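Late entry, written up from scratch paper. The run itself happened at the end of the previous shift, but nothing got recorded in the book at the time, so transcribing now.
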Amino acid sequence: MLENLKKPHTLIAIFLTATLVISVLYFPIWGQIVSVLVLLTSIGMAIALILKKHWETYQQAECTREKMIRNLAFDIFGFLLTMGAAMYIGRLTGGYFGLHNGFWFGLLAGFAGGFVVAWAVRSVWGRLVAEV
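Output as recorded:
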């Protein structure tokens, strides 16, 4: 089942984002509930794929159990740090530009701000973990 989720990851991301935007625009009462469900689904899928990757490496005897647990902790913490920073900066950017320039510009600015911050945090975290 996890292999099926890994292949069309772009389509799943587009579907979850479209579901969130449609729910906010057409069903504002359900927007908060749908956003929490989309967030939890996305985080759960990402963590499941991280676990699967490290478990396969461990099963193939490419690393020890301690190294697997260390790498797993680094990957999950880095993922959560990246997601948290992207959500925070994306919310601030989207709120600011949405307030001053309209909803659609704020939405695009929030996506762009979150993407740039996620990319920066991920690259910095990757360099820090590579040194350890």
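Residues 64-132 form one domain.
(Scratch paper discarded after transcription.)
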